[in-house]
Amino acid sequence: MTARGAMQSLLAIERLTKRFGSIVAVDDVDFAVERGEVLGFLGPNGAGKSTTMRMITGYLPPSAGRVRVAGFDVGHHPLEIKRRIGYLPEGAPTYGEMTPRRILDFTARMRRLDAGTRRRRTGQMVERLHLQPVLDRPIETLSKGFKRRVGLALALLHDPEVLILDEPTDGLDPNQKHEVRTLLADIAPAKATIISTHILEEVDALCTRAIVIADGRLVADSRPRDLLARSRHHNAVTVRLGADQVDLLQAWVARCAGVVATEVVPGDGDTAELIAFPEAGRDILGRVQAAIEEAEVEIEEIRVERGRLDDVFRELTRAA
Amino acid sequence: MHATLAIVRRELQAYYGSPLAYVFIVIFLALAGALTFHVASWLERGRADLQPFFQWHPWLYLFLVPAVGMRLWAEERKTGTIEFLMTLPVATWQAVVGKFVAAWLFIGSALALTFPIWITVNYLGTPDNGVIVAAYLGSWLIAGGMLAVSAAVSALTRNQVIAFVLAAAICFVFMMSGLEIVQSPFRGWAPAALADAIAGISLLSAFQQISQGVIDLRHAILFTSLIGLSLFVNTAIVELKKGS
Questions:
Q1: 3-class SS of residue B100
Q2: Would you say A234 and A310 are in contact if contact means Cβ atoms under 8 Å apart?
Q3: Across all residues in chain B, what is the average pLDDT?
Q4: Residues A195, A202: contact at Cβ < 8 Å?
Q5: How confident is residue B243, by pLDDT bands cut at 50, 70 and 90?
Q6: Which distant-in-sequence residues (6+ apart) come within 8 Å of A56 by Cβ?
Q7: Tens-digit pLDDT profile for residues A38-88
Q8: Average pLDDT over residues A212-236
């Protein structure tokens, strides 16, 4: 690898723009993904996530800007890029009349895997994604979960350097979601990965970085932890106690220094939750505990919140 | 080359794995037989040739070939598989050629299954087998020309019915361009050279000559350039339309 090559990100996107007529679907987006990074790609429906992914994978030509994968420009070397990318398109479209066995074989041939590699990689994919029971059934007869896993197997088959996955766990049940996340976490250190998703817990569980896009524009690019820190729930203290005592405690807590607001949420049965929101950056756990002692109330639970991604997500994408 | 072959293989598997193939082959054979024996009265003519058999082929192709071609790209776009296909390491033209070749081979296999009539004519008399080979080749070429046109039209739309009707109409114009129905709108105003040029691309006249054993370089150029041009247009349309 040349010195210059070593400097380059595995995937780099510069001022990427896509217009459809007068509509600007993706507007001047910049980001880069390094090897080992898992980038969570968030945004409301229609924000431009899929369009961005289609430009990265060479399916759509950009209106402006450029995409480079391992130093190759997608406009000039589309095949070099397609060889290095594993792509799961939105909805995981595959030929419905084919069986998973046939389409894996077809994809392996298209990717020029030799017979040995073809057999080995197909075997690994079938095993890791549990495709054995449906290997010889037409894909159109399979459940949504199996279809999605076939799509994933096709994207991972050639062990690509760059993974672009458009909602990889959509349609999977909780167990399957967990398995796919484990699989992705296993292989991610050797790759640059982009995952678009609506499931915010997935970003938390899987991603090393998150970007948020709204109306085609990049509105946030940071670690999930830093995104969480933007939530008003970040470091908030939640106390669960009897509903009859919650008003008393609220009066005490509201007087604590560093608490900017309190909120009561009815719980189940005769309990309620009191949430105390801190001033940005302050730790109020000790003060809330002191307030509990002073109020002489009996509590069932007390916890410090990490923050809520959906808060941040709404905040970031509503403004745009 | 590798990718094109993989696509040919996949497409052929798709044809022979679906009822479409058998419906097509059975209808083609049944109609070809019925027209030859009942309409053209092949046996009663008392001549050892296959002229009455081949003369119907362009008419059969007129609706059977667009029926094969209509799905080539319209279906890919409708189901979204085009995104899967075109993000594999394959150039658009390679995919276009692969799909075309597979469909052409498939139609060729239906044509090849008419071999009993060739055996029959050799049993009954002593035909000029060179002419018959030329006619088979011409028949396959005219099917290829129509198929390439149908494939290009199929890339224009997600709707297979529209693709079928449009392709059949365009094939009809290409077929009949030497005849009065297409010529009369031009003769009145266009220079004679243009009308002659339009007549020159008539697939039907070219096919009639080939099936009588007259193989002319012009015919070969006509068919191959129609196929080449259509596939070129097909590639351009796929590139242009895949995002919409």
A1: helix
A2: no
A3: 88
A4: yes
A5: low
A6: A11, A13, A67, A69, A74, A85, A164, A194
A7: 999 998 888 899 999 999 999 999 999 999 999 999 989 999 999 999 999
A8: 87
Residue A138 reports pLDDT greater than 80: yes
- Sequence-distant (6+) residues with CB within 8 A of B223 are B141, B142, B144, B145, B203, B206
Chain B residues closer than 8 Å to A57 by CB: 87
- Cβ neighbors of A275 (< 8 A, separation 6 or more) are A233, A236, A237, A238, A262, A263, A264, A265, A305
CB contact under 8 A, B243 and A85: no
Mean pLDDT of the A183-189 span: 92
Token code pair at residue B229: 């041009």
SS3 category, A238: strand
The residue whose two tokens read 């997608």 is A74
Among A199, A221, A198, A201, smallest CA distance to A211 is for A221
Contact call for residues A28 and A58 (beta carbons, < 8 A) = no
Closest chain B residue to A158, measured at CA: B88
Q: Which of B77, B87, B94 to mutate to test the interface with A (most CBs of A within 10 A)?
A: B87
Lowest-confidence pick of A98-112, A178-192, A225-239, B65-79: A225-239
φ, ψ of residue A2 to 5 degrees: the values are: -75, 165
- For the record, the structure tokens of B180 come out as 């009065």
8 Å CB contact of A54 and B243: yes
- DSSP per-residue letters across A59-79: SS--SEEEEEETTEETTT-HH
CA nearest A153: which of A135, A140, A141? A135
**How far is it, in rounded angstroms, from Cα A126 to Cα A104?**
9
Note whether A69 contacts B: Cβ–Cβ < 8 A: no
Q: Which residue has the higher pLDDT, A168 or B20?
A: A168
* pTM greater than 0.80: yes
Query: pLDDT-based confidence at B244, cuts 50/70/90?
Result: low
Please indicate if any CB of chain A lies within 8 Å of the CB of B6.
yes
| Mean pLDDT lowest among A3-7, A60-64, B91-95 | A3-7
Q: Which two tokens stand for residue A299?
A: 């509590």
> Which residue(s) pair with A212 in the sheet?
A42, A220
Contact B89 A59 (CB under 8 A): no
Length of chain B, in residues: 244
| Interface probe, candidates B71, B77, B84, B90, chain A, greatest A C-beta count within 10 A | B84
Q: Touching check for A250 and chain B: CB below 8 Å?
A: no
Q: What is the DSSP letter of B36?
A: I
CB atoms within 10 A of CB A1: 9
